[in-house]
Every structure is written in structure tokens, then in C-alpha cells.
Amino acid sequence: MQQKYGALRVISLFYRLLGVLAIIGGIVALIASVATPRGDLITGIAVLIGASVGAVVLFGLGELFQVFIDLEENQRTNTAILKQYLKSEAGKRA
Questions:
Q1: Contact 43, 33 (CB under 8 A)
Q2: pLDDT tier at 37 (50, 70, 90 boundaries)?
Q3: DSSP letter string over 42-94?
Q4: Residue 52, pLDDT score
Q5: Which site among 13, 22, 36, 70 is 20 to 30 Å from 85 CA-CA?
Q6: Does the model's pTM come out above 0.90?
Q7: Which of 11, 1, 3 is nearest to 66 (CA)?
């Protein structure tokens, strides 16, 4: 089956990568917050929680695009199967 919607696939991958980068950034911010003399653990954990929420949203958005693409592919496959079935049934009746 031919793959369609290349741009949506790229956008989906982009959002998923941003989600991964957000969680990595949160971990780095937590370490930086704890390592600095003025930093404390509470601030670092708050930043990590915020980054985690953002990461989940970004990753989920990327997966949502992938779901839409998969739905279209499934519908296209079902349409092809139905057309083939209807042709075979029409041939039996003729």
C-alpha cells in the first residue's frame, strides 16, 4: 500500500522528538538546579514536573497525528477490499 501524507508523518515525528527533548531538558534542569549553590531540590522537581507535562502533551500530539494517518490507511485498505468483493459478487450474478 502506498504511503501518503509524508508531511504529516514528519510533523508527527517532530512532535514526538520535541516531547523526548522536553523530558531530557527537564532532567538537565533538575540536575542544574540541584548542582548550583542557590538552587534547591523543590525548584528542580517543579521544573521536572512541568517538563514532564509538556513532554506528555507533545508526545501525545505526535501520536494523535499518527492515529489519523493510520485511520486513513485502514479506510483505504477496507475500501480496496470492499471493491474487490463487490466485483467478485457482480461476476457471480452475471
A1: yes
A2: confident
A3: HHHHHHHHHHHHHHHHHHHHHHHHHHHHHHHHHHHHHHHHHHHHHHHHHHHH-
A4: 95
A5: 70
A6: no
A7: 11
